[in-house]
C-alpha cells in the first residue's frame, strides 16, 4: 500500500495537469466565443452539450462514475459558456 504522502503527491501532479488543461479549455472557449460573435451563433447549444456529456459518460464504467463525470462537465461547460458570453459582450 502506498503512503499517504505518495498518494497526495500523485494527486497534486494530476491536479496541476487538470488545471493546465482547464485553462487551455477556457482559452479555446474564448475563441469559440469570438467565432460565435462573428457568425451570430448562439452561445448555448443544448444538443451539443448533451452529445458531449453522452460521449464522455459512455467511456466510463460504473453508474456513480458516470454521474460524477456528467456533473463535472456540466460545471465545465457552464464556465465555458460564461467565457463565451463575456467575449460576445466584450467584458473580457
Describe it for me?
The protein is mainly α and 92 residues long. It has a single domain, classed as Chorismate Mutase Domain, subunit A, CATH 1.20.59. It is 82% helix and 0% strand. It contains 3 helices and no strands. α1 packs across α3 (63-88) and α2 (46-58) runs antiparallel to α3. The protein starts with a helix and ends with a helix.
What is the CATH third-level topology name? Chorismate Mutase Domain, subunit A
- The run of helices and strands is HHH
Count of runs of 4 or more consecutive helical residues? 3
Tell me the fraction of residues in β-strands, as a range: under 5%
Dominant shape: flat
CATH-derived architecture: Up-down Bundle
Number of domains: 1
What structural class should be given to the helix and strand makeup? Answer: mainly alpha
Structural Rg: 17 Å
Low-pLDDT sequence parts: none
Ends distance: 47 Å
